[in-house]
Amino acid sequence: MRKNKLLLLLLLTILLLSACAGTSESSSPQYKIYLISKSTSTEFWRSVFAGANAAKAEYNVDLIIRGPETEENYLGQNMYIQEAVNNHADAIVFSAISYMENAPAIDAAAKAGLKIIVIDSDVNSSNVSARIGTDNIQAGRITASAALASEEEHISVGIVNFAQVSRNGEEREIGLREELEKDPRVEQIYTVNTVTDHDAAREGAVSLLEEYPEINVLIGLNEPLGVGVAEASEALDLSGRVRVISFDSNIRCIDLLRSGDVSALIVQNPYAMGYLGVETAWKVLEGQSFRPDQLIDTATSIITKENMFTVEGQKALFSFG
């Protein structure tokens, strides 16, 4: 009889604890957060999504990921911003294709009560709660240091950049040119802007090399453009004559780095951008304040054939692994 009473007491205790746990869990709000990217088709953005989904699991948020196919479709992004408003989202984690053209939609979302967290590429809005990503001016300077590692006495640089409406591409080229122009060996700097696509970048790089055969340093300023310039160098058999510098850790560029066709990769940390974007959105919704004028820098590294197999090199190349 006593044994049955003890068993009943134990069962009641378990039920009581379960009820308390259920009450606590249900009282914690599950925020709805939209992540609106510049694209969904590159390894860079897949790494961003991996980081965002890790934060989703940790903070128990309802995460909706949206993004256009190409990094030129700012109108598509504006439609997704409106979708977030219509679906009563609590926050948007956003990377702007157009610094100016995305701003009215972001301002309207903020006016509707959504918190705005910027990752990767900025937008011209005073309604942003926090900014996370690469210090792009500094990334440009780092790229210049990789370019100036050339042993050539005379340097001519070809830059393949993406749309001029995008803030991060503009800032990278500013930092890059500032540093290049300090070195007396640099005689010419040429730029071509293409759509963010490796085929277009390859064609742009080939045209640049054909028009200016003196180019001996060739740079692509984001992942698809980096793949394009690497493929242009490979197609024209420029290994040993042109120093090729690519952005991010696309597997194609990693292979070409290992073979020597690419001299350096300028590697960001997209996984951290995704993770910190969702985490910061959650913290803002919980009442924490950030200074939007102070970038939360996710760091940038130079990876070469010499350091790519070190522990730090592997962490940079495969940050989501």
Class from helix and strand fractions: alpha/beta
The string of secondary-structure elements, in order, is HEHEHEHEEHEHEHEHEHEHEEH
Largest sheet: 6 strands, parallel
Number of strands: 12
Strand content: 15-25%
Could you please say which CATH topology of the largest domain applies here?
Rossmann fold
Q: Which consecutive residue ranges, at least 5 long each, have pLDDT under 50?
A: 1-27
Q: Count the helices. How many?
A: 11
CATH superfamily of the largest domain: Response regulator
**Principal-axes shape call:** elongated
Q: So, CATH architecture of the largest domain?
A: 3-Layer(aba) Sandwich
The Rg value, from CA coordinates, equals 24 Å
- Give the mean pLDDT: 89
Strand order of the largest sheet: 2-1-3-4-5-11
The percent range for helix content is 40-55%
- Integer count of domains: 2
Top-tier CATH class of the largest domain: Alpha Beta
Kindly summarize this structure in a few lines.
The chain is α/β, with parallel strands linked by helices and 321 residues long. Helix content is 47%, strand content 18%. The strands form two sheets. It has a six-stranded parallel sheet, sandwiched between helices.
